[in-house]
Amino acid sequence: MTEDRTGSRTKDRAMNDTTSGTAGGTGNRKDDHVRHAVDQQHRGPDAGRSSDHSASDFDSVNFVHHALAGIDRDSVELAVKTPAGMWQAPLYINGMTGGSAGTGKINGELAVAAREARIPIASGSMSAYLRDPSLAGTFRVLRDENPDGVVIANLNANATADQARRAVGLIEANALQIHLNALQEIVMPEGDRDFAAWPANIETIAAAVEVPVIVKEVGFGLSLDTVRRLRELGVAAADVGGRGGTNFARIENERRSRGDYAFLQSWGQSTPCCLLDTAGVEGIDIFASGGVRSALDVARALALGATTVGVAGRFLSVLMEQGTAALVEEIGDWLEALRRVMTVLGAATPGDLAGCDLLLTGQVAAFCQARGIDPAPYSTRSTRT
């Protein structure tokens, strides 16, 4: 996007696509995203709407308590097998940022936390580096600070195979995320407006890179039809990235001078609903992210069929407000709490949680009814097993 001194734009952008965040280019936008994402941790992703922003569809997914189901805590094993190898726990720091001096520093601190907590970490979108190689260090720091850990590259679906290989090579990535963010782009003043090539691009990239490809939504959810199509395109894992976490429609709307796209802030499906919608799909792993607030939400997501669970906004908020050491402690607390929840449920492995009984209520149950999913069998899974 270009703009002259009088404010006129090139014809590839609508006249009303104005924002306070474009003057400094990509760097300003990345810094804006971090600031707004942290703010949402305090006000909630749906602040500004009439609903209670603390509510979550995860609260409509509850374990049936069986008082004699408990096992020895020391027998609980958190390791999970993913397309990107064995991970020591079903938890990872999801892609957030990079592309400016400030966000490069954040990436370095996140990488240290991932290294110390021994969990994987994903990069934010590396498209900025592809446009400006001088920004490479803001992403390369993920590998420099975490030389032996699992690091995941991240690009948008407009990328070419060559660009994907460059991104993977820069950080010696163990996997590649391709993020889907059509709704964010539509609201973003300087965003893309053409998404027709995405499926073909994804298929080309999946065949071209030597690491597993994970396709993730950025907060609006993946449907059953989408996941099936991703499997056909050669994708190894789909991160459902459901509504309930960082709301990028709201972020981009707040970057607009008129804020005229507020009506899209409630778009999409929540993470629990996405997991229920995609349950039973074979040939592709399902990852979960979006609105994960605690170790209990991690357990709920795993019980709904996720292989592993990504967290971004909550961990970013802890890092920005309390520092790296506090984030390492926070992640450790989550992993210990997850282990204890699994102990009470009698789940010796994360996969065992998929056999635990669940009560699906509220909006989640309503979603199931609308999509032709019977919630009743989830409440008696242990008996049937």
Write up what this structure looks like:
With 385 residues, the protein is an alpha/beta fold. Helix 8 links the parallel strand 8 and strand 9. Helix 1 crosses helix 9, helix 2 runs parallel beside helix 4 and helix 11 packs across helix 13. The protein is globular, with a radius of gyration of 20 Å.
Give descriptors for this structure.
single chain; 385 residues; alpha/beta; 8-stranded parallel β-sheet; two-stranded antiparallel sheet; 12 strands; 40% helix; 12% strand; globular
Strand line-up across the major sheet: 4-11-10-9-8-7-6-5
Residues in helix, %: 25-40%
Q: Could you say which structural class the secondary elements and strand pairing correspond to?
A: alpha/beta
Strand content: 5-15%
Main sheet properties: 8 strands, parallel
Number of strands: 12
List the helices and strands and how they pair.
Blueprint: H1 26-43, E1 61-63, E2 80-82, E3 85-87, E4 91-93, H2 101-117, E5 121-122, H3 127-131, H4 137-144, E6 151-156, H5 161-170, E7 175-180, H6 182-187, H7 198-208, E8 213-217, H8 224-232, E9 237-239, H9 248-254, H10 271-277, E10 285-289, H11 295-303, E11 308-311, H12 313-322, H13 324-345, E12 358-360, H14 362-371, H15 381-384
Parallel strand pairs: 4-11, 5-6, 6-7, 7-8, 8-9, 9-10, 10-11
Antiparallel strand pairs: 1-12, 2-3
Helix pairs in contact: 1-9, 1-12, 2-4, 2-13, 5-7, 10-14, 11-13, 12-13
How would you sum up this structure in a few lines?
This protein has 385 residues and is α/β, with parallel strands linked by helices. The protein is built from 15 helices and twelve strands. The longest helix is centred in the C-terminal third of the chain and has 22 residues, at 324-345.
